[in-house]
Design a protein that fits this description.
The chain has about 280 residues and is of the alpha/beta class. It is built from 9 helices and 8 strands.
Amino acid sequence: MRKLFLPALLLMTFAPAMVPAAVHADEKADMQRMAQEHQHDKPTPSPAAMQEPAQPVTGAEVTYGEAGGKPLRGYVARPKSAQGALPSVIVIHEWWGLNDNIRAMTRRLAGEGYQALAVDLYGGAHADTPDAAMKLMNAAMQNPAAQDNLKLAAAWLEGKGAKKLGVIGWCFGGGWSLGTTLLMPGKIDGTVIYYGHLETDPAKLAAVKHPVLGLFGAEDKSIPVDSVRAFESALKKQGTPVEIKIYEGAGHAFANPSGGSYRPDAAKDAWQRTIAFLARTLKK
């Protein structure tokens, strides 16, 4: 069995009284592999990172709840012309944190007709170097308030009238996207995972009944292709609609236009698949 990259979240999901005091050796190994994928990378802005949405949108910083005695602040965007409730998406940042790239991706999602809420699992911090990102990620993985953070994000969107709810994340956030689904499968209508670490235990995946889209790089050393195929197989065997795309020649973070691993062709195709998937699962 491949353990999920987010031990704290899953332990709280399936055994609420258990909160890990430290990250276990296998999770540390996963973190080290991700760090190696990013060792020469920086979240440097590029023109591709600031692509305009398909239609004008409004965006603003928002407080969507309180967890661990601290306010939860994120970024929300929606189409400028939209009136009333919209299908909604929880957006989960990469290991760099809630930075301008994630805000831009949130606006692009809004441009496709959604109310998109980018959560912050780092408490307002974000990283510019791999070492700093590693520290923030390690702290988030052990944070007992993470479960409440995501539940409150879903509740905030539901309070805005969302009838259908999706979740999307990249890298660290890709693992959290699956973790959010396992945390509250009854509330999620569609899950998008960009190169996030995966759970492959059928017993733990049994609660996932809604459609799942997974997008991975064949050269990603932190997420072996065999674990992706095991994840896909487990979902198919239980009848869960699942679409997996593995891009040849692409590594980890291939869809991040603000990093050195960006692969434009793969990123473009992945985005088109994402938009088509969300339209099928959230707009019908």
